[in-house]
Task: inverse folding
C-alpha cells in the first residue's frame, strides 16, 4: 500500500484519512528541555510578530492576515535555466541551504523524515539507525548537498549526483508489522524526504535567520521542484502549484506522520547517547560534551517542527522555550553576517562558491548572490 496524495485530482476535495498507525507516548519523558506528555495543542505566542508553525510549509512566518490573503500559485518551473537562475549563484537554495546555522534544523528534518511510516520502517529494516542514529545524517547530507553544489549550472532534469542519491534507495522496500508496503522510491515518499530539506530552509530562515518574503516563497517553491528533478525520481503525486504543495504538506503533517520507534529513537538520542560522529575526536571528550550538545540540538529541532507534528510526538513547546529560541535567533542574526565565508558556509558549498569566484573572476559575494 502506498500513501496517496490527496491533491492531484482536480476538482476532488481533500480526503480525510485516518491516521494509519501509532498512537503517542503516555508516560512523560523529558527530552531536549521539553517534556513528552499527552498531546495538548500549544497555542501560545509570546513574541510580537508571526512565530507559530501551524503545519504548513511555505507560509511560515506570515501573520494570520497574510496567510489568509490570496496568493499566486506559480506553475511548474519554466524551461531553460529555471527560476530565475537555476540552482546556482543567485538562487535561494544555493545561498541558504549552505548557511552554517541551517545545521540547527537537522533535528527537525530528521524527525519529519522518520515520522513518515515508510521512511521510519525502512530505517529500522535497512540501516544501523538504532546503533548509530546520527550516522545516516552525516553520511547522507554531503550527497544531498552535492546535488545542489557540484553542478550549479546544470540544465533542468536529472544530474549525475542526483541519480547517484536515487540509486542508493533502489533496494529499500518491504512491509511493516501492520502489513503496509513501503518503497523508498515511491513518488510521494521520495518527494516527502526531499521536501523536508526545503522545509529546513524555510524554518531555518524564518525562525533563526532572515524571514523569507512572499515573493521568495514563490521562488523557493519553483526551485524546490527544479532541485527534485535532479534526482530523476518519480513525479507521481508531486504537487504542481504552491497552493497544492501547502495543502499536501498540511495533510501529511496532520494525517500521515506518526510517532514510531524510529522517531522516538531521535527523541531519545540525548538520553541514551550515540557514537561519536566526528572522526578523531577523543571518546572522553565526546562523552563530556554529547549530552548538552544533543539536548540543545534536539530542543531546536522540536521548536522548528510544525505544531501538528509536535502534537503527534507528544512534545510540549512552552512560552519559555519560545523566548529562549528568540535569544538564539537574535544572536544568529547579529553575528551571521560577520562570519568569514569558510565558517559561514558548509565546506562543500564554500568550495563550490570559491571555485566559481575564481573561474568567473568575480568576488566571493557575487559567487553567492549572483548573477555570474
Result:
Amino acid at each position: 500500500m502506498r500513501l496517496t496524495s490527496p491533491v492531484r485530482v482536480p476538482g476532488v476535495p481533500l480526503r480525510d484519512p485516518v491516521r494509519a498507525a501509532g498512537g503517542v507516548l503516555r508516560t512523560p519523558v523529558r527530552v531536549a528541555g521539553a517534556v513528552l506528555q499527552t498531546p495538548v495543542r500549544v497555542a501560545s505566542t509570546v513574541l510580537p510578530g508571526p512565530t507559530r508553525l501551524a503545519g504548513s510549509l511555505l507560509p511560515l512566518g506570515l501573520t494570520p492576515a497574510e496567510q489568509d490573503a490570496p496568493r499566486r500559485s506559480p506553475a511548474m518551473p519554466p524551461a531553460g535555466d529555471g527560476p530565475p537562475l537555476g540552482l546556482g549563484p543567485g538562487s535561494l537554495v544555493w545561498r541558504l541551504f549552505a548557511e552554517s546555522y541551517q545545521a540547527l534544523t537537522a533535528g527537525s528534518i530528521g524527525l519529519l523524515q522518520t515520522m513518515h511510516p515508510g521512511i521510519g520502517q525502512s530505517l529500522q529494516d535497512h540501516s544501523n539507525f538504532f546503533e548509530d542514529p546520527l550516522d545516516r545524517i552525516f553520511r547522507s547530507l554531503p550527497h544531498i548537498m552535492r546535488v545542489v553544489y557540484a553542478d550549479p549550472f546544470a540544465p533542468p532534469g536529472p544530474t549525475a549526483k542526483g541519480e547517484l542519491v536515487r540509486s542508493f534507495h533502489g533496494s529499500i522496500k518491504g512491509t511493516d508489522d501492520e502489513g503496509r508496503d513501503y518503497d523508498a522510491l515511491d513518488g510521494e515518499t521520495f518527494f516527502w524526504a526531499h521536501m523536508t530539506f526545503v522545509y529546513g530552509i524555510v524554518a531555518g530562515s524564518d525562525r533563526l535567520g532572515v524571514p523569507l518574503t512572499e515573493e521568495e516563497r514563490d521562488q523557493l517553491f519553483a526551485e524546490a521542484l527544479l532541485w527534485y528533478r535532479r534526482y530523476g525520481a518519480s513525479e507521481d503525486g508531486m504537487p504542481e502549484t504552491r497552493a497544492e504543495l501547502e495543502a499536501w504538506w498540511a495533510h501529511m503533517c496532520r494525517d500521515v506522520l506518526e510517532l514510531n520507534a524510529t522517531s522516538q529513537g531521535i527523541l531519545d538520542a540525548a538520553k541514551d547517547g550515540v557514537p561519536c560522529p566526528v572522526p578523531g575526536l577523543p571518546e572522553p571528550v565526546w562523552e563530556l560534551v554529547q549530552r548538552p550538545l544533543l539536548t540543545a540540538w534536539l530542543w531546536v529541532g522540536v521548536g522548528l517542527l510544525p505544531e501538528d507534528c509536535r502534537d503527534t510526538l507528544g512534545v510540549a513547546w512552552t512560552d519559555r522555550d519560545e523566548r529562549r529560541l528568540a535569544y538564539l535567533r537574535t544572536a544568529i542574526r547579529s553575528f551571521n553576517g560577520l562570519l568569514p565565508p569558510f565558517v559561514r558556509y558548509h565546506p562543500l558549498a564554500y568550495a563550490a562558491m570559491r571555485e566559481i569566484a575564481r573561474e568567473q573572476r568575480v568576488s566571493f559575494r557575487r559567487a553567492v548572490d549572483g548573477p555570474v
User: Anything to note?
Assistant: The radius of gyration is 20 Å.
